[in-house]
Design goal:
The complex is a heterodimer of chains A (about 110) and B (about 120). By secondary structure, chain A is mostly beta strands. Chain A is about 0% helix and about 60% strand. Chain A contains no helices and eleven strands. In chain A, strands 2, 4, 5, 9, 10 and 11 form a six-stranded mixed sheet that branches. Chain A has a five-stranded antiparallel sheet with strand order 1-3-8-7-6, with no helix packed on it. Chain B is mainly beta and about 120 residues long. Chain B contains no helices and eleven strands. In chain B, strand 5 and strand 6 form a beta hairpin. The radius of gyration of chain B is 13 Å and the shape is globular. The mean pLDDT of chain B is about 90. Classes of the chains: A mainly beta (about 110), B mainly beta (about 120). At the A-B interface, strand 9 and strand 10 of A face strand 5 and strand 9 of B.
Chain lengths: ~110, ~120
């Protein structure tokens, strides 16, 4: 089955600096890669996603890159702000027997230091 | 985006009792819903895929008789934790799929279960 590895598990950056979180996946059939932000005790919120036919996508301070050959995808947050502090999860979607299945990475706890 | 509501948001129960958690899609019909379990500081682990009008598909290692899932309508799926034990204490989150199998998933608020 699909396996998603996420690194680092924790990340601390100074406010204004950039943060990068990386994920790898195992199943080449995966075709959709969302990123979620989860604050303590809250539901995951979709912040950006990328499909397998695109190599990069950007939304203001957030960007995601995908390397299908290497099965890598990364989240880039620029000009970080204290409110960016949260746990971030990558995920990979695979379609199995007519149903989608989303497999999550282990999560990265991002702390933005003022 | 679409709204998914989960209830209750938290529940405390005694060992041996059963607890039902509801997941509702408020403004769209969801033929498929998913139930996840999340331990503290851990990732979301898929427990089962719930399909309206049919039996749920459980992930390997998830006890069907322990975690009963019912998806009786296009807007409601329920998860019942039967004969709960302290090790069942966790954060349970549902998500609902909008539209086709490639549709975006929308998450409920989550339900924190504590079994004493």
């Amino acid at each position: 089955g699909e396996n998603v590895e996420q690194h680092p598990s924790t990340l601390s950056v100074q406010e204004g600096d950039s943060a990068v979180i990386k994920c790898t996946y195992s199943d080449s059939a995966s075709n959709y890669f969302p990123w979620y932000k989860q604050e303590l005790g809250k539901r995951p919120q979709l912040i950006i996603d990328i499909r397998s036919n695109v190599g990069e996508k950007k939304d203001q301070r957030i960007a995601v890159t995908l390397n299908k050959t290497a099965k890598h995808f990364s989240l880039h947050i620029t000009e970080t702000q204290p409110e960016d502090s949260a746990v971030y999860f990558c995920a990979a979607r695979i379609i199995i027997q007519g149903a989608q299945k989303l497999v999550f990475g282990q999560g990265t706890r991002l702390t933005i230091n003022p | 985006g679409a709204v998914v509501s989960q209830h209750p948001s938290w529940v405390i129960c005694k060992s041996g009792t059963s607890v039902k958690i509801e997941c509702r899609s408020l403004d769209f019909q969801a033929t498929t819903m998913f139930w996840y379990r999340q331990f503290p500081k851990k990732s979301l682990m898929l427990m089962a895929t719930s399909n309206e009008g049919s039996k749920a598909t459980y992930e390997q290692g998830v006890e069907k008789d322990k975690f009963l899932i019912n998806h009786a309508s296009l807007t409601l799926s329920t998860l019942t934790v039967t004969s709960a034990h302290p090790e069942d204490s966790s954060f349970y989150i549902c998500s609902a799929q909008q539209g086709q199998i490639t549709g975006e998933l929308f998450f409920g608020e989550g339900s924190r279960l504590t079994v004493l």
